[in-house]
Design goal:
Elements: E1 11-16, H1 20-31, E2 35-41, H2 45-53, H3 62-67, E3 73-76, H4 83-92, E4 96-99, H5 107-120, E5 124-126, H6 134-143, E6 151-159, H7 178-193, E7 199-207, E8 217-224, E9 228-235, E10 245-249, E11 252-256, E12 263-268, E13 279-281, E14 284-286, E15 297-302, H8 311-320, H9 330-349, E16 353-354
Parallel strand pairs: 1-2, 1-3, 3-4, 4-5, 6-9
Antiparallel strand pairs: 6-10, 7-8, 7-16, 8-9, 10-11, 11-12, 12-15, 13-14
Length: 357
């Protein structure tokens, strides 16, 4: 169990990698009520100089950072392909470790890091900050609401129009691509929404619109037990986005159009709402798609809940002191990794892949 660091009892944290996410972590650590930023290290001297210009200590080497006894936690915010090797060195140096997502680029690497964590008695986890997104939290509420009857499909989408990023996230050697970039978050959310239901099979089709090295987008179906399907889409060439979340069950549906919105819900009060009258739509007539009588439906909203992403570091610091269990567990990390690996296998095979835990 880690003891308290100096400086008002806050845990000392250092960040390896001072790019986009490294900068995000440093900003949050500077605001944290449980952790304090000791400094950063980046292999790029210009990034170290930028940190100093921003009033942040820059270690001259990874070795210097890992040797600092004030550091209890190391957060890794580097390109994906080096997460595992840095995590192992930090764990062996006696540090607890948070890795940016994806935690590693395959299950073999993940198991190797977990083994070292267990050997050293240090904590190791991944930064699944999207568990604090309000849209996800509302959809998890909706899934458990009885008004929707038996939920059989949940759709989750993130779509943009700027193409795949032009940095290392587009390079296969560094673990680029949208499954690793956004898929890892949406898969984790989907598994959490359905309470880690058993997965039967996975089907994935990756998109390669402009010929990038990595997947520029994808469509993934996760088939769970009880005939529930989680559908996940990530796109980088979508100029008009589909709803962020859509849930449908035997008695109703819920939709979140945009991550800023609350959840609109529509459920059946009375299944039989009288004789169905055909309606004219476009150049034809339909009885099947005729709208329900308004008084047979109940419309309501699930409001955005209070959520504070600082709770992520609060939990991890408490876990290092033996005061809590870490929120993102090794088993959850493994499961998300297995789903991503199955998605890649399905895309290569062009078929549904039975899921193996």
């Amino acid at each position: 169990m880690d003891t308290l660091n100096n400086h008002s009892g806050k845990a000392g944290v250092a960040v390896i990698g001072y790019g986009g996410m490294g900068g995000w972590h440093t900003r949050f650590l500077l605001e944290s009520d449980v952790a304090r930023l000791c400094g950063i290290y980046d292999i790029n001297p210009a990034k170290r100089e930028l940190a100093v210009a921003n009033g942040i200590k820059a270690y001259s080497s990874e070795e210097e950072l890992l040797a600092d006894p004030e550091i209890s936690i190391v957060t890794i915010a580097t390109p994906n392909d080096v997460h595992a090797e840095i995590a192992i060195r930090a764990l062996r140096a006696g540090k607890n470790v948070i890795s940016e997502k994806p935690v590693t680029i395959n299950s073999k690497e993940l198991d190797a890091v977990i083994a070292v964590a267990e050997e050293t008695g240090k904590l190791f986890t991944v930064h699944q900050n999207r568990r604090w997104d309000c849209d996800y939290l509302m959809m998890k509420q909706a899934y458990h609401r009885p008004e929707f009857g038996k939920v059989f499909r949940i759709e989750s989408r993130i779509q943009g129009s700027r193409g795949i990023p032009g940095d290392w996230r587009a390079e296969k050697a560094h673990g680029g691509g949208m499954i690793y970039d956004w898929g890892v978050h949406l898969i984790d959310q989907m598994l959490q929404i359905v309470d880690d239901k058993k997965i039967k099979a996975v089907y994935c089709k990756c998109e390669n619109i402009i010929g990038a090295e990595c997947d520029e987008g994808f469509r993934l179906d996760i088939m769970f037990e009880d005939d529930v399907t989680g559908h996940i889409e990530v796109g980088t060439h979508n100029f008009l986005s589909l709803p962020r979340f859509y849930l449908t069950g035997t008695c109703g549906a819920a939709v979140i159009e945009d991550w800023r919105d609350r959840t609109k819900c529509l459920c059946v009060k009375e299944w039989n709402d009288g004789p169905v009258k055909p309606v004219v739509t476009a150049a034809g007539m339909t009885k099947t798609m005729a709208p329900r009588a308004e008084d047979s439906l109940n419309e309501f909203y699930i409001e955005r809940p209070a959520s504070d992403v600082h709770d992520y570091y609060r939990n991890f610091v408490a876990a290092t002191r033996g005061e809590a269990s870490q929120i993102v567990t090794h088993a959850e990390m493994r499961r998300v990794m297995k789903v991503m690996e199955s998605a890649f296998m399905s895309d290569r095979a062009g078929s549904v892949i039975p899921f193996v835990e």
